[in-house]
Write a structure and sequence with these properties.
220 residues; 6-stranded antiparallel beta sheet; two-stranded antiparallel ribbon; 9 helices; globular
Length: 220
């Protein structure tokens, strides 16, 4: 426990995680010229790190919305849970996730959108709005950004949990993610994902994780 606290303290003093330091050192920033370096790094993370297993890294520091500042956030969603869709396409949010969401003040709305890995991502509305603010600070005429917006923001759907803690997943999103009756929830810090079980196994099986671990060697 002491080693963990020391590691977090060092990360806080440095102002960024090991992963973010790597982004600054390599200068990989998604093709932008000028502008805020931290926002460039965030854009690089969105496009080049998503889907490669980077989200398994347990970090406690993320970028602020502007000004090159770094803000501290709690690690929110962890763990995997299997649940079932009903005939109307509703699914109950895992109890542990509901406890976390209940502790978040303000709007209970969740934003559900598609991921390039053919799963769904679910954001608390505050986390989604933070992402929107960061995106709005980027050059809006950039072609890659437009593609990203058309996909992720274009698929985004507002869902409000009912009294039983269920959300209704629209049919087009269910079809995109190949969701049958049994689905898996996967917590990845400030959001959680919903997967078809066979696709999740293909993306996180032993061989895949070994390959990802090698590619991430030295980042954390």
């Amino acid at each position: 426990m002491a080693d963990r606290d020391i590691s977090r303290k060092k990360s806080s003093q440095s102002g960024m995680t090991g992963r973010s330091r790597e982004h600054v050192q390599t200068g990989k920033t998604g093709g932008f010229d000028g502008g805020n370096q931290h926002l460039k790094n965030h854009f690089y993370y969105l496009f080049h790190c998503g889907g490669r297993g980077v989200d398994i890294c347990e970090v406690a520091l993320i970028m602020g919305a502007s000004g090159g500042k770094w803000g501290r956030v709690d690690i929110l969603f962890r763990g995997r849970y299997q649940h079932s869709l009903d005939d109307k396409g509703r699914v109950a949010i895992p109890g542990r996730y509901r406890e976390i969401l209940d502790g978040v003040p303000g709007d209970p709305t969740l934003i559900v959108t598609a991921e390039t890995d053919e799963c769904l991502s679910v954001y608390p509305v505050a986390a989604w709005q933070e992402l929107e603010r960061k995106i709005m600070a980027l050059p809006q005429m950039n072609g890659d950004l437009k593609t990203y917006l058309r996909f992720v923001v274009g698929w985004a759907t507002e869902c409000v949990p009912d009294r039983q803690g269920r959300i209704l997943l629209p049919a087009p999103l269910r079809d995109y993610a190949h969701l049958g009756r049994d689905v898996w929830f996967v917590g990845i810090l400030d959001k959680f994902e919903i997967w078809d079980g066979s696709r999740l196994q293909a993306m996180t099986g032993k061989d895949r994780i070994q390959s990802v671990s090698l590619s991430l060697s030295g980042l954390f």
